[in-house]
Amino acid sequence: MKLLRVGNPGEERPYVIDAEGIIRDASSLCQDFGPSTLSPGFLMAMSSNLDSLPAASIDGQRIGAPMSRPGKVVCIGLNYRNHAKEAGMQIPTEPIIFMKAPNTVIGPNDDVRIPKRSRKTDWEVELCVVMGSRASYIESESDALSHVAGFAISNDVSEREFQLERGGQWDKGKSCDTFNPLGPFIVTRDEITDVQGLDMWLDVDGVRQQSGSTSDMIFSVAHIVWYVSQFMVLEPGDLINTGTPAGVGNGFKPPRFLRPGQEIALGISGLGEQRVRTIATP
User: By CB atoms within 10 Å of each CB, which of 36, 122, 149, 155 scores lowest?
Assistant: First the structure.
């Protein structure tokens, strides 16, 4: 089952895509997709009632982020072996955690704004974990995925000068407006048979920049969810961006960075595709 929201910003309506690819209007079951509608019980009830939901067409309409604003966005840095290598950094012995402001989340095809005074805005295709139930001090890594509602595509857009050259921590290079296109949908956990075997890619202006697989993760999705829960409570609707493979702009010699007027297309097998344009911040 795939969850998506369609409509203008602030006016999105909930829809579901069933196993046959039929888009169904879910507004009779809930007003929106958010923390309360990602619980295992609600998702199971909705799945059981899919046939009763009316088919719908969303042609020509904007696709929003697949859930309303998350409580928090947790990110994992340097979680792909080939990305750590291109960055010239050692393989981490524990997951590197940083935070991204929740209001960075936008729709999968919305415009990404290049920040004022930015010189090094970069791209990162990532697998995003969407939490479905509260997780605190998960006892066993084998239990971690039971707390997950599903998965989505995330673009962890980053301003490398703000992140790495302006002192302090990474957050200010990660939390600029529009810096987290998400979606097009949340794919529920039951549809992904092997989360560590997903192909991923990203193009800029039609040229392939990133090509990788979640199999190259240093720390698995289950380990990340377990690990993060040892330091903070994960709530339903929280997001975890799990890292990016090699091919980010900062890793090229010379580096390649984004400018207004470019197109970024990205995808992960089974999770759909995004296509955004970069624009200048007014």
Answer: 36
